[in-house]
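Input (Methylthioribose-1-phosphate isomerase):
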Amino acid sequence: MKPVEWIGNALRYLDQTLLPTQEVFRETTDFREVAEAIKSLRIRGAPLIGISAAYGLCLGALEGTTRQNDFYPFLERVDSILRSTRPTAVNLFWALDRMKKIWQEAQKNATLPEETCSRLIEEATTIEREDEAMNRKIAELGASLIQDGDVILTHCNAGALACGAWGTALGAIYWAQLKEGKKIQVYADETRPLLQGARLTAYELTRNGIPTRVICDNMAAFMMQQGKINKIIVGADRIATNGDTANKIGTYSLAVLARYHNIPFYVAAPTSTIDFEIVEGSQIPIEERNAAEIKYWKEHQIVPEKAEVENPAFDITPNTLITAIITEQGILYPPFQEKILSIRRKIER
Ligand code: MRU
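Output:
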């Protein structure tokens, strides 16, 4: 099941807020709807946000062809609306930067809008294809760290629903079980407040025949204490050059628990998730989401109106708590900085 797909000149996407009970695909030709879908987490997960924003820009470009003289200024506005959707996942900015390079070059050469649209669609398609290839490599490399009989804890959703193909953390699990025949069990943290673990990870793993148990986030420590978990694999939204990693809120506490219980803690992510411009995790912007996500469960109020809440959507796991980072360029072990910088040199060459 592809969570987003470019068909004709439209974007078809799975509304992830309705899972696991309803599989509803929507189709749009409006970049504003793509921006709204990213903001509201109908489309979510770092790589998928990047891919969808790239296609969103294509929709904006197609709309802009009717504004001949205003075409490039219009693209500038489309770009900034898409950029303002979610601040933490760097894949959004990475993908829009790639798109911007194309349309700025076209603008410089006074390329006709229709021609620019074709080039943009080609680039967005390439971004999607590259993500698929990176997923495959991460899955294969990640599987080499998984042994037959492993019981793996994961957090949030870093699977096919969050990417162009296999997923990252879940990709490794799929590869190990489906390609290599290793028997694996997964614990999926429910992942408060929006329940990506319970709703999405459990949904896709069980559809693929991976035995999965959902636990509330506050049960993970007890499971580790009881010796029920022997590996943790999570995804990432942004990795600093020193290896500090932003991922869904609750990831950091798992890494601390993993260290205490002597459990390997792996991060799986494509290099499009590495922010080579920042040195350490404290520079990563953390999205603060609406209080209503904590105060209400659907229409039911679960927190007194007068109580204040905080709702950071991500946290930062310090590099010192990470056993390895699995990228499509290889498995990186600490210290990370030099290895990450050498990946940068390789990519930019
Ligand atoms: O708020 P979300 O659902 O977009 O958060 C997603 C995560 O935290 C994932 O772990 C991360 O994006 C990696 S997806 C391969």
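The domain at 4-136 is CATH 1.20.120.420 (Four Helix Bundle (Hemerythrin (Met), subunit A)).
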